[in-house]
Description:
Blueprint: H1 3-16, E1 22-28, H2 30-33, E2 42-48, H3 55-73, E3 77-81, H4 87-96, E4 98-101, H5 105-131
Parallel strand pairs: 2-3
Antiparallel strand pairs: 1-2, 1-4
Amino acid sequence: MDNLLKGNINIFLEQAEEMCNINFAYIFGSYARGEENINSDIDIAIMLKEINMDKMSELFIRGNLIELGKSIFKKDVDIVFLNVDSVFLKYKIIQEGIVIKDSRERIAFESIVLREYFDFKYYSNYYNERMLV
């Protein structure tokens, strides 16, 4: 990750904290893998401190963060809330993502996601073997 991107991430996080309470965050996708190109968007996963948020508030905050990201990065930005997204996406994010804001809660979160992912993966594989033959 280059210094310009790191600086923009810091600016984004600083300004995003004024909109919502961020517990921890990752950058993931092509930028985390070092495979970005001119058309790549910037994928940011955020764990909010406020866990029980209604759908309307979630959409409002996500929209504001996307607009903030576009103005800072001058690229399309995708925001994922780790509070609500699927275990498969969470697993992918913790596997390939780069932590851009950290807290103690992240370790517990990653433990829970790994346990849920591998528990569910067993049943998913079992189902696929039986039903998709």
